[in-house]
């Protein structure tokens, strides 16, 4: 296998090359830089509301009630755990195929990661989830949709219901993915997204926490660092709800800057064009990989529909909608719960699967997310 790989022609192009920032984003960023007003809040009122409007737009995109924009996807995960009252030393379950910032966010919140095994399909093993939940006494599962690999969410939600687990979704690699027609990022009590350069949306660094509970949203806003300026948020609970938490919620200074929001807002509108291009490149590379004898093919996971990105085909295991799964024959033990995976493995597939939207545990059913047509799968860091 090593010799065969060495003899393969080498691709010279960088498949992680990000899309350029839209001209509207560059223009707004320059306007902000000339004004010097890069902070998300205005002391004299909401005289620069780029972040507040972005939060409102992103909440609508995902079809969640509230969005809090922060400085990274990892910060969003940490805030999710804090507003769920995760305590120092408390065990938090996380699937072993993930990236360092995910267990890092658990430690940042003062908790303790408990790694759950994955199966040969790179997604969480629900049998091991049951074992680890019972052995550890954990009450929170932080599910990482790593490289866009979407677990059987019906099985995951069934296990969470059975075990009394609260679900938090790490969606850094899965913006606009669905399971049986339901948006990834709407299954958990909270979900975190990333705007790091190699993601669907690129601000260099940035993140979003989305959730539906008014009290948790109020705490997240205050934790993020709103000072007494929280009324400038547009995607927020009533001011009296926030006021009820104001005197007892520490400021962690995790705010997104106005500059980052200026870069991000036009990219929401640019997603359909990006997706069409990325999907075409992905499918072209995947088709060529599929033809190579060293790649094994498995059937597509039923119900999963994840956006594709050209980098999905860089190597090993990748689930592709409309295409069989193509993977180098790597023993499943190579990426068990030590958190590692075959080098370069990324996820993939396309958007908008069909199927009934399962009822949300403890919440009313939401409207369909206001997504364009599809979106990307993502890269390496949060």
Automatic annotation (TrEMBL):
It comes from the Bacteria. Residues 371-382 have a biased composition (Polar residues). GO terms for molecular function: transaminase activity. Residues 337-350 have a biased composition (Low complexity). InterPro entries: DegT/StrS_aminotransferase, PyrdxlP-dep_Trfase, PyrdxlP-dep_Trfase_major. Signal peptide: none annotated. The keyword Transferase applies. Transmembrane segments: none annotated. Residues 337-382 are annotated as: Disordered. The keyword Oxidoreductase does not apply. Keywords: Aminotransferase, Pyridoxal phosphate, Transferase. PANTHER family: DTDP-4-AMINO-4,6-DIDEOXYGALACTOSE TRANSAMINASE, TRANSAMINASE. Belongs to the DegT/DnrJ/EryC1 family. This is DegT/DnrJ/EryC1/StrS family aminotransferase. It comes from Bosea rubneri.
């Amino acid at each position: 296998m090593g010799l065969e790989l060495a003899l393969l022609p080498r691709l010279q192009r960088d498949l992680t090359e990000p899309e350029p920032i839209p001209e509207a984003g560059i223009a707004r960023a320059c306007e902000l830089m000339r004004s010097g007003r890069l902070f998300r809040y205005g002391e004299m009122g909401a005289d620069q509301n780029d972040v507040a409007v972005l939060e409102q737009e992103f909440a609508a995109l995902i079809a969640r009630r509230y969005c809090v924009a922060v400085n990274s996807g990892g910060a969003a995960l940490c805030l999710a755990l804090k507003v769920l009252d995760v305590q120092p030393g408390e065990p938090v379950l996380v699937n072993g195929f993930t990236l360092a910032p995910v267990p890092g966010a658990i430690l940042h919140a003062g908790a303790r990661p408990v790694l759950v095994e994955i199966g040969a399909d790179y997604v969480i093993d629900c049998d091991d989830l049951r074992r680890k939940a019972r052995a550890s006494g954990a009450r929170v599962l932080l599910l990482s949709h790593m490289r866009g690999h979407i677990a059987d969410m019906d099985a995951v939600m069934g296990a969470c219901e059975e075990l009394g687990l609260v679900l938090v979704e790490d969606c850094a690699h899965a913006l606009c993915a669905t399971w049986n027609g339901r948006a990834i990022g709407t299954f958990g009590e909270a979900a975190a997204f990333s705007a790091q350069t190699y993601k669907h949306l690129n601000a260099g660094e940035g993140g979003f926490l989305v959730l539906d509970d008014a009290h948790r949203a109020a705490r997240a806003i205050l934790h993020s660092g709103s000072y007494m300026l929280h009324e400038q948020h547009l995607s927020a609970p009533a001011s009296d709800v926030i006021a009820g938490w104001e005197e007892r919620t520490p400021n962690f200074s995790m705010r997104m800057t106005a500059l980052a929001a200026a870069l991000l807002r036009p990219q929401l509108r640019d997603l359909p064009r990006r997706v069409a291009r990325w999907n075409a490149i992905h499918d072209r590379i995947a088709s060529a990989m599929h033809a190579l004898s060293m790649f094994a093919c498995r059937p597509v996971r039923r119900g999963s529909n994840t956006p594709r990105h050209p980098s999905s085909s860089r190597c090993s295991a990748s689930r592709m909608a409309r295409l069989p799964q193509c993977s180098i024959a790597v023993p499943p033990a190579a990426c068990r719960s030590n958190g590692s995976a075959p080098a370069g493995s990324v996820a993939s597939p396309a958007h908008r699967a069909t199927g009934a939207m399962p009822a949300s545990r403890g919440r009313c059913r939401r409207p369909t997310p206001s997504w364009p047509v599809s979106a990307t799968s993502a890269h390496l860091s949060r």
